[in-house]
Amino acid sequence: xxxxxxxxxxxxxxxxxxxxxxxxxxxxxxxxxxxxxxxxxxxxxxxxxxxxxxxxxxxxxxxxxxxxxxxxxxxxxxxxxxxxxxxxxxxxxxxxxxxxxxxxxxxxxxxxxxxxxxxxxxxxxxxxxxxxxxxxxxxxxxxxxxxxxxxxxxxxxxxxxxxxxxxxxxxxxxxxxxxxxxxxxxxxxxxxxxxxxxxxxxxxxxxxxxxxxxxxxxxxxxxxxxxxxxxxxxxxxxxxxxxxxxxxxxxxxxxxxxxxxxxxxxxxxxxxxxxxxxxxxxxxxxxxxxxxxxxxxxxxxxxxxxxxxxxxxxxxxxxxxxxx
Amino acid sequence: xxxxxxxxxxxxxxxxxxxxxxxxxxxxxxxxxxxxxxxxxxxxxxxxxxxxxxxxxxxxxxxxxxxxxxxxxxxxxxxxxxxxxxxxxxxxxxxxxxxxxxxxxxxxxxxxxxxxxxxxxxxxxxxxxxxxxxxxxxxxxxxxxxxxxxxxxxxxxxxxxxxxxxxxxxxxxxxxxxxxxxxxxxxxxxxxxxxxxxxxxxxxxxxxxxxxxxxxxxxxxxxxxxxxxxxxxxxxxxxxxxxxxxxxxxxxxxxxxxxxxxxxxxxxxxxxxxxxxxxxxxxxxxxxxxxxxxxxxxxxxxxxxxxxxxxxxxxxxxxxxxxxxxxxxxxxxxxxxxxxxxxxxxxxxxxxxxxxxxxxxxxxxxxxxxxxxxxxxxxxxxxxxxxxxxxxxxxxxxxxxxxxxxxxxxxxxxxxxxxxxxxxxxxxxxxxxxxxxx
Lengths: 324, 438
Prior knowledge:
- The complex is a heterodimer.
- By secondary structure, chain A is mostly helical.
- Chain A is built from 14 helices and no strands.
- In chain A, helix 7 packs across helix 8 (181-219).
- The longest helix of chain A has 39 residues, at 181-219.
- By secondary structure, chain B is of the alpha/beta class.
- Chain B has helices at 24-37, 98-105, 133-137, 151-154, 161-172, 177-190, 207-218, 237-254, 265-271, 289-294, 299-306, 383-388, 395-399, 403-414, 431-437, and strands at 56-67, 70-82, 87-91, 113-115, 120-123, 126-127, 144-147, 225-229, 258-261, 274-279, 282-288, 355-357, 363-365.
- Chain B starts with 23 loop residues before the first helix and ends with a helix.
- Classes of the chains: A mainly alpha, B alpha/beta.
- Chains A and B meet through helix 9 and helix 10 of A and helix 5 of B.
């Protein structure tokens, strides 16, 4: 891969993140409610105390440039402020505690969906009109059109409430901290199973439909006719000629979705009460915990930008045409 | 995979192991004889090959496409022969079945395409039309390769040129990858591309280079027959000339047996020994290039040649063939050209003209030249005969209001035009010219 391509993409990503940081600042200054207004809710606050607080927090300075510069400096040094809701805890700490559950949940769900969705789509497209195609494509369309919370509630109703195979909510059984590591891990996987399945099922349809149409389109290309003329077996034609080309649109979709791994589908986390960023977002919204929300937004945006960067780099590896 | 010779490099799979056991000595002798005839062949012939058979004999080839509105006979009872080292041009308007004919040889058809039961495609006497898909696969590229039109799409955009050339060598000839890539480099040098350029991806090469790479790929397995499917279409005139020159050189040096499909008659005049003119899925006329271009017999051939610019016939308006080829779902009865034919007689709309071969080796399917006519139109089209021709066909009637004039004009057009004047690359014979004047 050309280093110029790499540099161009990385610089582009950095610029985008900088713009997002600025936007994040502006957006939350436009919203109702500021720290001093929260103080105003207390009728006993004196004007002096207010003024002192405003000075301490830098709110007496003008928004631009002083407050913006302060904000940029703090953000660059990893200080995202403190939470209103979580008793003054650092926002970064709050986020860090909620990040990994979400990454594990959506990361695993994505991987499962990518593997099964792309395989199903590729096979359906290859054996177009066959039984797998009919059934697979039908199911994919249904799944594609179903929102996460519907899938989640259905799965929850059947496998947790009905069959009692899996726990209904949370990430670990409360009070299970004394168990051995192995049993704790098993407990974790038990809790993970249903939400991960929900995420995977929700994404499989999307991948399968895209991959199917991509494979069908690719199989109609002239170079596939060339491959047939070369006397290759149909399996080899698919593997070494059709799939490398058909995967290109799928990579884009995967990248876009990976960006949302962190944002996740809030609904899945809420349905399964999964202690990730999704439930944190809902909690912070309800409490108007702007610093936490601001942190979540920043994290989300950066992850989308990074996922796109990764996609560009993978795309560059797969398709020689975009490198030059 | 039971035959002992199966895994030997370069042998095409033998379908019937029993056959492999009889007449071993005879075959060895025959192979020797073939080695003399085809000394340039790098690999042994397929074991079932008949040493005395011509290179390629196609008989009664019929190809149908199942469509929503019924089956289309895209190729209808087409027969031809290709001798070793010979170049056969197939010409005709768009949609007359040229490409389908060629692709039918190795059954490279869309899913709705079928080859008729009576069709036979005999390569060294081996009937490919009877082979199963899997057995036929071993002959593809190995014995019959294709130079496709517009190499941009015919080459895989995400794979390197040399990998694509090496792929059939590796798979068909069972050569290891390093050797195959080395061979790919040699092939690229052969077609005038530096071997290191093989590292390039298709989009990094110019159109002419891609077409050269495509030609190198077609030569990869030293095939018995190379089919050029409009190899110079979509290239600019200078590059067209270079590609034709390259094909000429390769023919000379490697003794290629070539089937060249084009609607550019000048390309055929320059490159081929024989030409087959097709119309609506059938052979109109076939014979040696110099004979056909000098004295075209079939009215369609005459029209087709008349429709080409000729640098010596200055300022003469180009001939136009009125109408367009028929809808093959409902081909006209009798001779398929009769609605557009200025010589159409009563019989033409009723009876399919038989293919008659004359003393000069030209085969014509036209009622003007019935069996025994010796190639001279015995049925001189008279005014009466033409008047009797049904006028309900629509196309011909209005356009040729004065049919006597039309006949005179056509006869004038038949005057021998020097073949070499139809030189390729003079700027007027690219693929658009035919379409534009139609």
